[in-house]
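ARCHIVE CARD
CATEGORY: sequence design from structure
SOURCE FIELD: tokenized fold
FIELD CONTENT:
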């Protein structure tokens, strides 16, 4: 039953806000602590979603909140007309935890991908006036702005927004023959953009041989490689970035979500030679990487890069996979388990949207993606004891639904 307080919140939401999110789930979170959330009535929840893989360092993280509070007492914003010590420090740290290069800070994941698309075209058009096409993959998701939306390989995301920008090619994921054929026939390809785990596509993991072959073909053909690390970056897979599982180094990565630990910040990080294509006036952002955003990114990166932090992701992640694979044996409703680290998909034999609301009533926050896949993405520093309790709730729910 919805409380009087929540009814009032829902009424005002519908009165004053765009309804593009439809009916939201029946909770209004007002406080967080570690891997727990608390709603408008004080009810406690275990969070297995992290605000779509954003709150990687958990709620009320001391290092993050201390950094944000300290920065608000100094200065919030001056714009990119001026030098910014926090931004420089954040960029230096990005090079240290990924690969040596340069960083452009923006405000979100979709903006990071927009910047990557522009950079790829600038690169391609520097070699040929027709070389501006970008390969992405079916069932991918790269954002909601026009360029990143068009790069997304899902027709349902495009509907109602045409005409879309030209120059995007959608190929089957994990199909090296179709990729090889396209590159051999099309000399206008400037770049490939890929998620190593398709989150919105159902937590589908890229095959290692496929990725290595794609990178070898791109290297031989002079095609720029862009890895969308919006969800897989910042420790989510058990390494700092998803590409580090594959023995490759891309020309560019896009990062956001967990980069600010809850504060909006995104980044395009590239090899030094790629950064040279963004000359003065070719791209910019009023707020991108301002003092406060950069301070949040520094604190978040500082936490995630700790050996103990990544060790927790691996150990809790291994526990999740062990438990989910056991559930698969015991509960026919569970069809498949996929993912890496704490980026996990539990595919069911039925649509799972209704289960998300039922889980919420039981005190567990989860998400449904690709219609039948429960997406599990808790804060990366979740304690094993908390993970166990959350899994018991989820198992109880699945058994109830199974009947």
């Amino acid at each position: 039953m919805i409380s009087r307080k929540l009814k009032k919140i829902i009424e005002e939401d519908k009165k004053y806000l765009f309804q593009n999110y439809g009916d939201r789930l029946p909770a209004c979170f007002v406080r967080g602590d570690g891997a727990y959330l608390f709603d408008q009535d004080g009810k406690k929840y275990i969070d297995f979603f992290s605000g779509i893989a954003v709150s990687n360092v958990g709620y009320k993280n001391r290092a993050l909140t201390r950094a944000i509070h300290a920065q608000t007492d100094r200065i919030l914003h001056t714009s990119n007309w001026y030098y910014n010590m926090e931004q420089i420090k954040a960029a230096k740290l990005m090079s240290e935890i990924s690969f040596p290069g340069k960083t452009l800070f923006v405000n979100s994941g979709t903006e990071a991908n927009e910047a990557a698309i522009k950079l790829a075209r600038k690169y391609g058009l520097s070699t040929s006036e027709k070389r501006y096409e970008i390969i992405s993959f079916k069932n991918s998701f790269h954002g909601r702005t026009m360029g990143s939306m068009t790069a997304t390989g899902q027709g349902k995301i495009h509907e109602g927004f045409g005409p879309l920008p030209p120059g995007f090619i959608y190929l089957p994921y994990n199909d090296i023959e179709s990729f090889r054929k396209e590159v051999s026939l099309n000399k206008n390809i400037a770049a490939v953009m890929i998620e190593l785990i398709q989150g919105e596509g159902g937590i589908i993991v890229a095959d290692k041989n496929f990725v290595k072959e794609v990178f070898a073909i791109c290297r031989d053909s002079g095609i720029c490689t862009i890895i969308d690390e919006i969800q897989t970056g910042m420790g989510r897979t058990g390494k700092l970035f998803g590409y580090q599982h594959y023995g490759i180094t891309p020309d560019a990565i896009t990062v956001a979500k967990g980069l600010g630990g809850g504060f909006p910040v995104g980044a395009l990080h590239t090899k030094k030679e790629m950064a040279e294509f963004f000359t003065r006036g070719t791209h910019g952002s009023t707020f991108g990487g301002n003092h406060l955003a950069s301070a949040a990114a520094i604190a978040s990166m500082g936490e995630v890069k700790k050996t103990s932090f990544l060790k927790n992701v691996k150990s809790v992640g291994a526990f999740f996979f062990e438990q989910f694979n056991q559930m698969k044996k015991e509960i026919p409703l569970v069809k498949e388990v996929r993912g890496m680290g704490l980026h996990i998909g539990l595919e069911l034999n039925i649509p799972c949207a209704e289960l998300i609301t039922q889980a919420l009533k039981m005190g567990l926050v989860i998400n449904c993606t690709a219609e039948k896949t429960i997406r599990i993405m808790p804060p990366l520093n979740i304690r094993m004891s908390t993970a166990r309790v959350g899994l018991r709730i989820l198992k109880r729910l699945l058994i109830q639904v199974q009947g």
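CARD ANNOTATION: The CA atoms of residues 175 and 261 lie 34 Å apart. The two ends are 23 Å apart (CA to CA).
SHELF: design records, drawer C
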